[in-house]
Amino acid sequence: MALKVIGAGFGRTGTWSTFAALNRLGLPCYHMQEVILNKANKGHLDFWRKVANSKPGTPHDWDRVFANYTATVDNPGCCVWRELLAEYPDAKVLLTLHPRGAEGWYDSTIDTIYFTENLWQFKILEWLTPFGRKFGDMSRKLIWGRVLAGVMDDRERAIARYNAYTEEVKAAVPPEKLLVFTVTEGWGPLCRFLGVAEPQEPFPNLNDRSSVKKVIRDVIKGSYIMLGLSIAGVVAVLGGFCGGWGSGGWVGGQASDSGCSSGDILGYAGGTAPPSGLPAISPPLGGDGRFGAPRPLTPLQIGESRRDVRSPPKWGRWPAGQRGARRIAAGGEKPDPCELRPTSPAALRSCWGSGCRFPASTSSRRDPSRPADNPGRSAHAWRLRP
Fold first, then answer.
1. Residue 180 pLDDT level (bands cut at 50, 70, 90)
2. Closest to 14 in 3D by CA, of 217, 180, 220
3. pLDDT class for 175, splitting at 50, 70, 90?
4. Cα distance between residue 3 and residue 104, in whole Å
5. Using CA of residue 338, residue 341, residue 345, residue 348, what is the dihedral sign?
6. How confident is the model at residue 262, as a pLDDT?
7. Pairing assessment for the beta strands 71-72 and 29-30 based on DSSP bridges
8. Rg of the chain (C-alpha set)
9. Strand order in the sheet with 178-181
10. Which of 350, 326, 354 has its CA nearest to residue 340?
């Protein structure tokens, strides 16, 4: 199909009602909702984003986008009406205007579609979804930037731009190919311009300001839901990430005087089963310090060192664990918590934040002043040493 009608009027000039009217007259019409809502138009948003990021007049495959349409109104088509008229020289141009003039158009636009540009709830959708990022980039550059020249925040300049744009279209299109139209005129002028019979039904009256605001409220509700789900997902990912690194910093688990243990929180790497029926887990680190699939840990056997069970990552060593293993090999004595302690600052911070009391020092000497040897002392009183 080739375009027969090119809508040059801005959005919020009755374009949705005109869209419905043209479809009723047998002219399949393109509109912004075809970009957003029509699942059959996969790839259209990417196409318009490409248009937005190219210079005016750059050739594009318009036939691919308008293959199933004979008319277009509203954004984004109105932003490239000159290019479309050059591509389809036999098409007629339909310039829709707001019934209450430039002031009415500005009030309607600033209260609806432009209002969303500065709404943080819509920014959430833009940040969190590929569609939001693409649509935001396209609308800012093509609609609000190129066509409206960034004047929407200034009422007087925006109204002046609307009037100047109207005169530009009138001057560029021959009168016999141009219809300046408001939806309050009904079927008559539009049908005479297109050479078709007038329907007996009333002219469509769609997309008034109240209905648009309802759509905006629905999108805002959806953004709240998406934000909540995203926060929950981030918390879950960070929890798993921190838990994995925290468990990577421990060689064993021992209950502290506060009732919290490394085994409870991070998984046991010692020789006993974890409390509360929790399974023994492996830190998600391979022998080279990179992330890998979790592996179940086995208790240390007599004469076996932790290095035999799992190689240490590059960023840390297990000196305390090795000493504990040697102590087991020597006489089967259970290593004390001062020797099975975190070897990374991240693991120490994780334990301290949960209330555990393990020593911050990396020395293996017993010291009554250290929290693990003296339950009366808190690990929070100790400063982490380099």
1. very high
2. 180
3. very high
4. 30
5. negative
6. 36
7. parallel
8. 34
9. 29-30, 71-72, 5-7, 92-96, 178-181
10. 326
Residue 94: which of 24, 158, 159, 29 has the closest Cα?
A: 29
pLDDT (average), residues 330-352: 46
Average pLDDT on 51-59 reads 94
What is the SS3 assignment for 179? strand
Both tokens assigned to 80: 């490239």
From the list 249, 266, 254, the residue with the least C-alpha distance to 336 is 254
Contact 339, 372 (CB under 8 A): no
pLDDT for 99: 95
Q: What is the pLDDT of residue 363?
A: 40
The CA distance from 2 to 92, in Å, is 12
CA–CA dist 189, 7 (Å, integer) = 15
Give the span between the Cα atoms of 246 and 366, in whole angstroms. 24
Residue 207 burial (C-beta neighbours within 10 Å; 0-12, 13-18, 19+):
buried
Specify the higher pLDDT residue, 274 or 32: 32
Q: What is the DSSP string of 142-159?
A: IIIIIITTT-TTSHHHHH
Which amino acid makes up residue 117? E
Identity of the residue numbered 48: W
Whether the full predicted model's pTM is greater than 0.90, yes or no, is no
Q: Which domains does the chain possess? A: 5-104+129-207 (3.40.50.300), 234-381 (no CATH)
Q: In angstroms, rounded to a whole number, what is the distance separating the alpha carbons of residues 62 and 43?
A: 13
Distance CA 149, CA 308 (A): 68
pLDDT tens digits, residue range 66-109? 999 999 999 999 999 999 999 999 999 999 999 999 999 999 99
Three-class DSSP category at 266: helix
Max distance between CA atoms of the chain, in angstroms, equals 104
User: Distance of CA 118 to CAs 121, 126, 136, 174, 333, Å?
Assistant: 9, 12, 11, 38, 66
